[in-house]
Amino acid sequence: MALVKKISSATIRERKSTGEKIAAVTAYDVAFARLADRAGMDIVLVGDSLGMVVLGYESTLPVTLEEMLHHTRAVRRGTRRALLVADMPYGSYHVEPKEAVRHAIRFVKEAGTEAIKIEGGERRMDLIARLVDAEIPVMGHIGLTPQSINTLGSFRAQGREEGSWEPIENDAIAIAQAGAFSVVIEAVAEPLARKITETIAIPTIGIGASAACDGQVLVLEDMLGLSPRTPKFVRRYGDLGPAIEAAVEGYARDVRSRAFPGPEHVYGMKVKD
Question: With a threshold of 0.90, does the pTM exceed it?
Fold first, then answer.
């Protein structure tokens, strides 16, 4: 199937009416960004999950604005067709609105992102509206919001009981009304994810929120078998960890046995026929 031209935030928003599903993955460097883009991803997300996946933090909270800008610049160099979205890290938008907008503008001007993602619902309405007014497309994020781990207490699923639905529903409605072009729904029970998807006019992108959503996003390292702990909702599409480890072991073995490098690997040496 021939791939369509460059994906924009408007393209993603239009998927709500066309019914075409949205495929998204994270990337934190140029190599994985290039592979994801060539594979036909609609969205490449530079998630603040890089804190745990790449930088080795215990949560996403320590990730800095400068770290996010650094990795977004790298991903930008490998992304051509997909829509490039970057997470605003904790603390970068939990400030005065003018300062938060300035931080978002840095993502656009310095890192080349085409949209930003922020966590939270109703309490982010004013900020989302300000960002949209500044011509920065916004992706919302509701349900399980990792930046709220100190408040939530654990990474537990949300909306399991119908009595707890209303705040999450209100968050989704608020984000759509504020002008966001899409919203990530994380770790939310299927009935609630379905209800939100049927209610709001912008696409929902699920992560552990069932096939009821308009699209899906996964951490690339999780789906490739490169993460030591894989969430229950992840389907592994590869098991590259053992393959990479075996390749590196083979290299070390050849170096120690002097099997590498051979004459064919050394500049200026001719290999006999």
Answer: yes
